[in-house]
Amino acid sequence: MFSANQLCKKITTLYPEIGACGIDIDVIQDSSNNMWVVHLEKNTHSLKHFLELMDADQCMKGKQCVSLGLEIAQLQKNIEGKQF
Length: 84
Description:
This protein has three helices and three strands; from the N terminus they run αβββαα. The protein has 84 residues and is α+β, with helices and mostly antiparallel strands. The protein has a three-stranded antiparallel sheet. A hairpin with a 4-residue loop joins strand 1 and strand 2.
């Protein structure tokens, strides 16, 4: 098993424009729902996304990062595209 910090670093490696772990992106494990919670923040806007454990595991093992990458890209697009 890997830590939240390791998953966060993997995400910022895939998408370095997101920002820094603990500042613009935060990852925590939601044990009650068996998922990872990826929280992105930009200025005063933020989004949360629930990432399936299996998808995160595959990416961390270097087998498949497509779903993780697509989900993170969508989160980033949503934050940048929000009209406030």
